Amino acid sequence: MIASYPLCLGTAMWAWTVDQAHAFALLDQWYAAGWRGIDTATNYPINKDPQDFRKAEQWLAQWIQMNGVQDLQIMVKVGAMDNSGSPDNNLSPSFLSIAHQHYTDLFEHQLDCVMIHWDNRDDPMAIQDSVYCLLECCSSEQQVGFSGIKHPAAYQAVMENMPYKPLLQVKHNPFQSHVDYYKDLWPFTRLLAYGLSGGGIKLSAQQNESTGAKARGVQLEPHQERIQFLQAQIQRHNNTFPEVSIQHLHHLGMIHAYLNEHISGLLIGPSNVDQLTSTLFAYEQLKAQQDIFSNLFKAIQ
Ligand SMILES: NC(=O)c1ccc[n+]([C@@H]2O[C@H](COP(=O)([O-])OP(=O)(O)OC[C@H]3O[C@@H](n4cnc5c(N)ncnc54)[C@H](OP(=O)(O)O)[C@@H]3O)[C@@H](O)[C@H]2O)c1
Predict the structure, then answer these.
(1) Which of 116, 194, 223, 281 has the most ligand 1 atoms within 8 A of CB, as the residue to mutate?
(2) Residue nearest to atom 12 of ligand 1 (CA)
(3) Measured from the CB, is residue 270 less than 6 Å from ligand 1?
(4) Exposed site from 137, 144, 269, 284, fewest CB < 10 Å?
(5) How do beta strands 111-119 and 143-149 pair?
């Protein structure tokens, strides 16, 4: 049976705003809490520093070796040639075979999912070649997935014919959502939402604490009106349900994604153990008391 990812720990900011000690502490806590899903990519961190190319995957491999861990479920996005953030990539079958072999060597049986990343092509035949090559490389325990697909229509035929519903990563937060962009692929995929808080947008009083948003160059100005609207909705919710009050915009992002009927899992990107603690707490609360959050969810659609 192929694995699912109800909640998955992201590594995009490792070796960028998250140093190695914090990344290892996050892994310790994640693993101790019983979670196993990890998301990474060849180009993490996308900080444009060539010396950091592949550092997130290297740290993950080091932590695994140091701790003798054998049961992670690792999802890797492949195709990038560097960590400059350039859309140029290599999704040829030969390159994908090499990438699959590299990650099999690095993570062995803990490699669960290999994702085609940032595909700008619109040629269904070329796409089919890439997907069939990866399907052949993957063992029956592994799965092929997708992230940053520019032309969903060109993917539809190949996805329809896959032996399972593949995972598809989509940006989704109260400021911007790509869920509808992939509407035609909903019946054939399982969506994983990322960017739950727009890359680290905070409620305005907390904004100066944000390092992630600054590093990524997130522009706050265009969102001011929406932030004020969301603050008012949170205030209303907190007045009505003080026992399940919301303190961080990230929690609102989790509600916004978790209660979306098309989304099957959440990718989270905590910077430190306090954030991970609050994320895990909020997730359990959300799972147990969905009804309480449903009015808020409807209000922020
Ligand atoms: N498919 C793709 O193209 C793609 C793109 C992006 C991400 N992803 C994956 O999805 C993961 C998550 O995405 P993302 O980093 O963009 O998510 P995000 O939730 O939009 O941004 C993460 C930032 O939110 C803040 N944050 C997280 N948890 C918090 C909490 N509990 N309380 C307060 N602030 C909190 C932190 O900001 P501060 O550091 O400023 O405190 C953190 O850096 C990535 O690590 C990556 O694995 C995939």
Answers:
(1) 194
(2) 269
(3) yes
(4) 284
(5) parallel
Report which of 223, 221, 214, 237 is spatially closest to residue 175, judged by C-alpha positions. Answer: 223
Indicate if the pLDDT at residue 204 is higher than 80. no
Tens-digit pLDDT profile for residues 105-163: 999 999 999 999 999 999 999 999 999 999 999 999 999 999 999 999 999 999 999 99
- Expressed in angstroms and rounded, the spacing between residue 3 Cα and the centre of ligand 1 is 22
**Would you say the CB of residue 138 lies under 6 angstroms from ligand 1?**
no
- Crossing angle between the packed helical segments 55-67 and 93-107, to the nearest 10 degrees: 30
Which domains are present in the chain? Answer: 1-164 (3.20.20.100), 199-263+270-301 (no CATH)
Report the C-alpha gap between 287 and 271 in whole angstroms: 23
